[in-house]
Amino acid sequence: MGYLIVYDISEHKKRLKVARILQKFGYRIQYSAFYLPEADEKLINFLYEEISKLVNKNTDRVFFYPVDPPEVFKGYPLEPWKMFVF
């Protein structure tokens, strides 16, 4: 199962550290959003622990959203960064 991790972190240095951690495991899809296509429970728990050490729980927000695997469109798998509009 994949995960979408989005965050709103006020301090630049902490925000940069979180981004560097997430870049090791997934794709940046927006400035403060990462898609992790191969995330298992062990990885998510590790990321939660590491990111929790960095953020201020009063001012910062980090969300972990589980997402289903990419669908298949006309026989081709959709890449996480592609979107079709009909």
Element-by-element helix/strand order: EHEEHEEE
Helix content: 25-40%
Radius of gyration: 14 Å
Q: What value does the average pLDDT take? A: 86
Large-scale geometry: elongated
The biggest beta sheet is recorded as:
4 strands, antiparallel
The total domain count is 1
Give the number of DSSP strands: 6
Query: What structural class results from the helix and strand content?
Result: alpha+beta
CATH class: Alpha Beta
Neighbour order of strands in the largest sheet: 2-3-1-4
CATH architecture annotation? 2-Layer Sandwich
N-to-C CA distance? 26 Å
Provide the CATH topology: Alpha-Beta Plaits
Number of helical runs? 2
- Residue ranges: pLDDT <50 for 5 or more in a row? none
Strand percentage: 25-35%
InterPro entries: CRISPR_associated_Cas2, Virulence_VapD/CRISPR_Cas2
GO molecular function: hydrolase activity; metal ion binding; RNA endonuclease activity
EC number: 3.1.-.-
Cofactor: Mg(2+)
What's the helix and strand layout?
Elements: E1 2-8, H1 12-23, E2 27-30, E3 33-36, H2 41-54, E4 61-67, E5 72-73, E6 76-77
Antiparallel strand pairs: 1-3, 1-4, 2-3, 5-6
Helix pairs in contact: 1-2
